[in-house]
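re: ur question from yesterday

yeah so i grabbed the chain u mentioned. its 139 aa long if i counted rite. heres the sequnce exactly as i have it in my notes:
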Amino acid sequence: MSEHPLRRYGAVMGICVLAGMAAGAVAGVVSATSDEASLGGAAMATAVALAMAAALWACFRWWKGLDEAAQEAHKWAWWWGSTVGLCFAGVVLLTLLYGAGDLGEAPIKSILMLGTAIVTGCQMVGYGVAWAAWWLRRR
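ran it thru and got these structure tokens back, copy pasting raw so excuse formatting
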């Protein structure tokens, strides 16, 4: 990967996007051609696992290239931002499940998917806000 920080970050994001698109393509084909309990489900899980492995490999390479200040900013932002985001996610999910009528009666798979999306989204927003706050306080 390039030594220039923006190119290196772009390369990491590119690898992650390509890996995710490949896993999504496999998931789409499997969903369209087979049921979940078949061999297609195993192929989909394998594709997602390989995509995650490629993304983690790219992220490790990117992390090694960061200076100490950037690493500290990311660690601090992940700890505080994602923790606060997780608190918000819990409130949002419980409010939706117990205050939204029919959603509380939804199948467990739907509730798990909703919970995953809410937690991930809230943690990412919290991380982004905390990361920006860390850098703004030190500039």
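noticed a couple things. Residues 2 and 56 are 18 Å apart (CA to CA). also The mean pLDDT is 80.
anyway ttyl
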